[in-house]
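>> received
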Amino acid sequence: MKPDQLEYFKDLFTQRMEGLMGEAGKTVSEMTEGSESFPDVTDRASQESDRNFELRIRDRERKLVGKIKSALKRIDDGTFGICEVCGKKISQKRLMARPVTTLCITCKTQQEKQEKQRGE
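>> returned
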């Protein structure tokens, strides 16, 4: 991959990480500050549901942060954009759609077929 392309992805990942970390900090402060206790059972249930939803989002973002860190490491060690299964280049189109991917479209399709057969 060309150096300018790698720099593009590095900048993209860095910006995304900063945004995710900012959101995580904001969520923590909002959850600790906004600990209202509602007398109505329905209001409490709604608040709990909202908190659970927010925590699920943050958990998905936490996993994405790990994938971004891994992608940045692959950029540094020269393996970014190379499929970890077959060793072929991952297409630019696929990287633009899913920058943190580690599999080319052929290997990802095969993986999904196997997961479907196993019932995952």
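>> The first helix runs from residue 3 to 33.
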